[in-house]
Amino acid sequence: MSVLISAPRGTRDVAPSESYKWHFVENTARSVAADFGFSEIRFPTFEHTELFIRGVGDTTDVVQKEMYTFTDKGGRSISLRPEGTASVVRSFLENSLYAPGLPCKMYYIVPNFRYEKPQAGRLREHHQFGVECFGSDRPEADAEIISLAAEYLRRLGVKNVELELNSIGCSRCRPAYHAALKDYFRARESELCDTCRDRLERNPMRILDCKSEPCRAAAAGAPLVTDYLCADCREHFETLQNLLSANGTAFKVNPRIVRGLDYYSRTVFEFVSSAIGAQGTVIGGGRYDGLVSQLGGTPTPALGFGSGIERMLLVMEAEGIVIPRPQAVSVFVACQSGEALTAVSALVNSLRRIGVSAECDLMGRSLKAQMKYAGKNARFTVVVGQSELESGEASIKDMATGETRACPLTADAIAAAVNMISPEA
Predict the structure, then answer these.
(1) 329-421 CATH fold
(2) Tens of pLDDT along 20-58?
(3) Which of 153, 222, 356, 403 is the most exposed place for a label (fewest CB within 10 A)?
(4) Which residues are within 8 A (CB) of 139 and not within 5 positions of it... i.e. 6 or more apart?
(5) pLDDT top residue among 136 and 212
(6) Homologous superfamily (CATH) for 16-173+229-318
(7) Can you give the pLDDT at residue 425?
(8) Closest CA to 281 of 246, 247, 256, 249
(9) Rounded Cα gap, residues 183 and 222, in angstroms
(10) In sequence order, which residues have a C-beta less than 8 Å from that of residue 85 and are 6 or more positions away?
């Protein structure tokens, strides 16, 4: 079949045959977030471009190269959301979400948009589970966010991951580290890519996050940020490590983690999978204590993480995790004769009203064809014809076991019979 229009490059459809996998991941995310006291927030797909320039940072690849930005009919610069945190902070301030008291704990499951080379687990439209917590500057909050991420992975069944942890300091201790990085990279400026030469004076830490092989080689001997932490940052980082150890959360300190966005401070972390190669980070996050004030609010400590759903599904597939596939419907009511058509339609809708998923034929199939369809798509079948209408009784067949049970031809009786045959149905 010739298709006149295809999906844009870097996007993909999720067909009904695989959407149940997404439901499993999303429902797990919602469940674990709720268990940690987080509530869902929803926000626009597009924002004023200035939000991301100020929030994400004008030295980042996201802002410089990857945003979908356009001018609307009112002459305003608008961008599709490249990440969730800036939008949550904007909503936190605009809607006074701090008013009921802190901490303010929120989660979201949203699509994000970045113009980059499409590859496995990295699409131009990708979906993200994220959490944000506002109000606490204590390491206990860091430990809770990391514990939430670890529990999310545990409930999904993902095992081959390692937590990597770092502290990138604060506004007091980072200037000395920046100065040390500038001195180091100035001596190697000829080895850097054009983008990193531009970063050298404005934000030298971003060079450590460059994926270019020459830049990675040049950065191999760069000073470590952990050697420049002030006393407060060092104490915060050490307490966090003690809390994680007490919680039974394994980790390793990786001084090279800086994350890719400018708003991070102090704690940064990644959960890295060994199952899918180089693009193995399945959860990444940390603190952004200065972002609220940077966007015009009262200084408020905050932290969170983001986790790509497409990449998580890749990891689960690579680890051989089988996601349970739900039965399409519980009961298929087959119509044996034209006289039964009205009764079948009414019965199916009565079943639905009492919470039993049910279907009937919409294609005018023969009874044999209906049963063949039901065998693929339903757990139970009920055949209704003239004799069933006259007797007020029908037989329910379990398509998995072949077991048959007689019952009155009413929605309540069929629901009860279904539960007796198979309580999980």
Answers:
(1) Rossmann fold (3.40.50)
(2) 999 999 999 999 999 999 999 999 999 999 999 988 876
(3) 403
(4) 236, 237, 239, 240, 243, 267
(5) 136
(6) Bira Bifunctional Protein; Domain 2 (3.30.930.10)
(7) 46
(8) 256
(9) 10
(10) 55, 130, 132, 261, 263, 288, 291, 304, 306
